[in-house]
Design brief:
The chain is an alpha/beta fold and 463 residues long. It folds into 2 domains: 272 residues, Metallo-beta-lactamase, Chain A; 183 residues, Rossmann fold. Helix content is 34%, strand content 22%. It has 14 helices and 21 strands. It has a 7-stranded mixed beta sheet with strand order 6-5-4-3-2-1-21. Strand 9 and strand 10 form a beta hairpin.
Length: 463
């Protein structure tokens, strides 16, 4: 068996891991890279392997950095099965068309500027027709059911607790007279977060591929995060400003709404309207409502009592572009939750462009921002940022709450490695920047006496 790491290797985006065994090629995830525009453009357009030679793709979850280049693979010749959980397939059915739409919209905007400069127009990576064709390749299986993917490969999805439908990928592989278990963590969630079940730690891996996003950091207590959130909301309300929250439409948006609902229920919220400016977020929230198999007991109690944490007084879901633009002319205090989560595309860019230069406003970062993204530049305190190629001064306050993160922190990752990888012959750390992966590798070595490998982009290992 051979594995090559073609994405999310010493970085947190573009997840792609290629397994070659018994003459077959199986790809774990097929995500889009985010970061420097030119670098990302090249990585996303040019596959480092021939998609037409893949036998199948297994999808851990629907986030675009894990699923977003599936239509690109199909466009370039992939014709096999894409296997996922049922909830992941349903989310992909709204995320991938949205990705195609955003590319079309953003390219049209950028091409207007390129035309003025005499530059050739850019084309989207894929279009709606490519997405439609991609969805035909999906096959879904439930959690905790062993499925014979091939005579020598059995697949089982295990709860990852990251977003709705997220799964650890367990492959039981028979090769050269031996049987081994390869476990890919996908993105692991935080134990004790609302809405979803905690990550399942019952697997026993011979080969472990695990994420390391927060390999060297621990999150604060959730109640402390909620109170900091309350303080930021109240301060923004008093200043008469807008609180802009970049959030992925799937997962983070629903968790932010859950916490705002908690503040409303406790009467700790000022009379401040909340706008979710992403049609995708509305669709994703509806998908959440129909997949109760993914919920924890607390969330089920809400639903069984005919309450919804995704509905409260003052909440508005924005659909049309006109409604979105109208928010820029509304001078009343408000909260705007908009995608994308790393501030790389979508409506959040327009809200930042129109509001980041006003000191009454605040931008709240509630998730990990990859290197070279606009979100990361804001986190690092840059005072002048480029949006759509134009420079804007940063006068709004930049607030950060890591406690909202849907990723497991360092302690949880070490615990996971100890539980599922105690007997592993090989542990690989992916989906993490080098400093975070190195700290986690050292902590795993101290805990279980096993050195974890941090593969470079394109590096191959014979197992």
């Amino acid at each position: 068996m051979r594995i090559t790491f073609y994405g999310a290797a010493q970085s947190v985006t573009g997840s792609k891991h290629l397994l070659e065994l018994n003459g077959r090629k199986i790809l774990l995830d097929c995500g889009l890279h985010q970061g420097r525009r030119k670098e990302s453009e090249k990585l996303n357009r040019e596959f480092p392997f021939n998609p037409g030679e893949l036998d199948s793709i297994i999808l851990s979850h629907a986030h675009i950095d894990h699923s977003g280049n599936l239509p690109g693979a199909v466009k370039h010749g992939f014709s096999g099965m894409i296997t996922s959980t049922f909830a992941t397939r349903d989310l992909a059915a709204i995320l991938l068309p949205d990705s195609a739409h955003i590319q079309k919209y953003d390219m049209a905007y950028l091409n207007k500027k390129r035309k003025l400069k005499g530059l050739d127009p850019l084309q989207p990576l894929y279009d709606a027709a490519d997405v439609t064709e991609t969805l035909k390749h999906f096959m879904s299986i439930p959690y905790d059911r062993s499925f014979p993917l091939y005579p020598d490969v059995t697949l089982r999805f295990i709860e990852a607790g990251h977003i709705l439908g997220s799964a650890q990928v367990e492959l039981t592989i028979k090769e050269k007279g031996t049987q081994r278990v390869l476990l890919f963590s996908g993105d692991l969630g935080r134990p004790g977060r609302p809405i979803l079940k905690d990550p399942d730690m019952s697997a026993n891996a011979d080969i472990l591929i695990m994420e390391s996003t927060y390999g060297g950091r621990n999150h604060g207590k959730q109640e402390e995060s909620l109170q900091k959130f309350r303080s930021i909301i109240n301060n923004t309300f008093k200043s008469g400003g807008k609180l802009i929250i970049p959030a992925f439409s799937v997962g983070r948006t629903q968790e932010v709404l859950f916490d705002i609902h908690e503040l409303v229920t406790r009467n700790e919220m000022p009379p401040m309207k909340v706008y979710v400016d992403s049609p995708l977020s509305f669709d994703a929230t509806e998908v959440y409502k129909i997949h109760q198999e993914c919920f924890d007991n607390h969330m089920r109690d809400y639903l069984y009592s005919n309450r919804s944490p995704f509905q409260f007084e003052g909440l508005h879901f924005i659909q049309g572009v006109g409604e979105s633009k109208a928010l820029n002319h509304d001078g009343s205090p408000m909260i705007i939750i908009s995608a994308s989560g790393m501030c790389e595309n979508g409506r959040i860019l327009h809200h930042l462009k129109n509001n980041i230069g006003d000191e009454r406003n605040a931008v709240l970062v509630v998730g990990f921002m990859a290197q070279h993204t606009l979100g990361r530049k804001l986190v690092e305190g840059e005072k002048l940022v480029k949006i759509f190629g134009e420079e804007y001064p940063v006068k709004a306050s930049i607030e950060i709450i890591n406690g909202f993160s849907a990723h497991a922190d360092s302690d949880a990752l070490v615990n996971y490695a100890e539980k599922v990888g105690a007997n592993a012959e090989s542990i690989f750390l992916v989906h993490g920047e080098p400093d975070q992966s190195e700290i986690l590798s050292d902590r795993i070595a101290d805990r279980i006496g096993r050195t974890a490998i941090i593969p470079a982009l394109g590096e191959t290992f014979e197992l």
